[in-house]
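Re: the request from the purification team.
They wanted to know what the chain is likely to look like in 3D before they choose a buffer screen. I agreed to run a prediction and write the result into the notebook, where they can find it.
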Amino acid sequence: MKIPDTDTADLHRRLVDFALQTLALPPETALNISPLTKGGSDRSFYRLIYKIDNTSEGAPMDVGGTCSVIAMHYNPERRENTVYADIAQFLLELRVAAATVLAHDPEACFVVMEDLGDEDLWSCRNENWLSRRDLYAETLRHAHKLHRYFHDDRGIPLPALMEGYDAALYRWEQRYFLKEFVEPVCGINLSPAEEEALEKELAELAIRLLSKSDTGLVHRDLQSQNVIIHERTPVLIDFQGLRTGSPFYDLGSLLYDPYVSLTTQERMELLEFYYALSPQVLKWPDFVTLFYEGSAQRLMQALGAYGFLGHRNGRADFRAHIPPGLHHLLDAVSRTSSLPRLRALTVRCLTVLNLGM
């Protein structure tokens, strides 16, 4: 058993012991623990690699060879971390592709789940469009099942979720954008009159997202790095933020993903695909308008996160997402007439950061 000689050695040892118990493997089983550093959350992920023989029981993969699982240790002070395992089970019952949780110890804050590999939708970004389109379409099918949960009654009860989207949460995300991105990253301090006018505009945006779009379950972070491609099939991960909200938030998250740029034609092709999945109360032009508005809301939240993680916490990898995020926001707000002040602010941010139009 390979244990790092660091202050975290005891944690790793306990995590390995929990995994061996979960997999019904002997305690002397040789196991390598390799940290996975991807992402910006307060959870720690590890790949646990081991070998088994033909007589072993409980191994989830590749009997007779090298196997692996993913182990997670989470901070219980952040409530969404504590509901991960129950949401995973719920998604599988709903027939939404998700990683299978093999065991959860809520006292130790350990989760062991199947290892689906490292390929994600982001890593497929350079493939030809026909190949990527199929992966995006299948991802949208899974998202659609979530979005239609309250319409397509399957008798599957909801697990404990985070508080759903309401005016206060939309407002929090908008303020997050201003306080963590516009002010510290762009150095822009709005005058009281400018701030009041923008707040009025964004409050009306929240009202439209709450009143004009059907409430569903939303992933809340449905972007390319949270869609694992396992055997050419999309599987959702990082779904602990699941909650009630507007489907347009998820659509904006995926189709205006700052990590992967889609052309306007590709984006609209996928939006039309989603629109045709079920009967729509909204006419197509109204649907498209709400898509752009939901995308603007999502992109404000994402840019706030890039400001917090990149500027305040010094994460260069997140700072790198600011230019595409801002350009996506400008594109979205430029395609609707309802957000002129947000558009003007986005142009100011691009100008200050010398990112062009």
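For the purification team: The radius of gyration is 22 Å.
Please add any questions underneath this entry.
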